[in-house]
Amino acid sequence: MSDDRTRAVERVKDEVCALHAELLRWGLVAWTSGNVSARVVGADGADDLMVIKPSGLAYNELTPQSMVVCDLDGKVLEGDLSPSSDTAAHAYVYRHRPDVGGVVHTHSPYATAWATAGEAIPCAITAMGDEFGDDIPVGPFALIGDDSIGQGIVATLDGHRSPAVLMRQHGVFTIGKDAKAAVKAAVMCEDVARTVHLARQLGQVERLQQHYVDRLYDRYQNVYGQDGAAAAATPATTSEGESA
Ligand SMILES: [Zn+2]
Questions:
Q1: DSSP secondary structure code for residue 143 in this structure
Q2: How far apart are the first and last CA of the chain?
Q3: The whole model's pTM is what?
Q4: Beta-sheet strand order (sheet of 35-40)
Q5: CA distance 72 to 244
Q6: Under DSSP, is residue 51 helix (H, G, I), strand (E, B) or coil?
């Protein structure tokens, strides 16, 4: 590996390790469940790689050194530990979605309750229009062990605005342009899953009219936050889309 390549891999290992703390912080995971991965873009014709959590390690034991580096077939290239048992699903997504730089998987309770009921979360609140631009869809039931989970994720999200899919009777997978965006989608997915569930206890929930959803999504994705026109004039501004 070239020095640049090694540095890029080390950077991604740091980032992926740190993002796992966010899953804990936002209450999305129990025990060792859940995982984050990120793509390492191959420069100068080198193949892309992925960095993913090791299998079965407690969250407080994770270090950048314990992260596992795999090729996009899920074969381990670097790391002393076995990669997450969800590695094949992550790898399938990276192989079939070149636009995806990060993948997250959790069994966060409210979103997984919707997945267990096999029901899409209706786009009933403005925050959903912003982040998901649609209902959060349900993907097929699939077992770990081959490409079926990955196929279900890719097929369900193909042409869909939502970066999150509720895999039936399993849990949530989210995608993003990078790992941080995928973590944000996982946090927001659980948040709206809880809110829409609570609203249902109070009465009927109506989906937003499609033209409102379209307007919310367009504004949030193109104008909102520090990434829009104002940021262009002040390039030093940080871009954290989530603050008001
Ligand atoms: Zn799972």
A1: -
A2: 42
A3: 0.91
A4: 76-78, 68-71, 49-52, 35-40, 102-106, 171-176, 164-167, 138-139
A5: 37
A6: strand
Instruction: Using DSSP bridges, classify how beta strands 164-167 and 171-176 pair: parallel, antiparallel or unpaired.
Output: antiparallel
Encode pLDDT of 126-145 as tens digits. Answer: 999 999 999 999 999 999 88
Q: 3-class SS at 244?
A: coil
Query: Residue 49 phi/psi, 5° resolution?
Result: -125, 175
Q: How far is the CA of 98 from the centre of ligand 1 (A)?
A: 23
**What is the Cα–Cα distance from 229 to 168, expressed in whole angstroms?**
40
Ligand 1 centroid – CA 182 distance (Å):
16
E strands, the chain, are 35-40, 49-52, 68-71, 76-78, 102-106, 138-139, 164-167, 171-176
Query: How far does residue 34's CA lie from ligand 1's centre (Å)?
Result: 7
Residue 85 identity (one-letter amino acid): S
35-40/49-52 β-pairing: antiparallel
- pLDDT over 60 (residue 41): yes
- Which DSSP string corresponds to 155-213? HHHTT-S-SEEEETTTEEEEEESSHHHHHHHHHHHHHHHHHHHHHHHHS--PPPPHHHH
User: Separation of 179 CA from ligand 1 center, angstroms?
Assistant: 17
161 alpha carbon – ligand 1 mean position (Å): 22
Q: Which residues are marked as active site?
A: 130, 224
A 10 A CB-CB count for 169 gives: 14
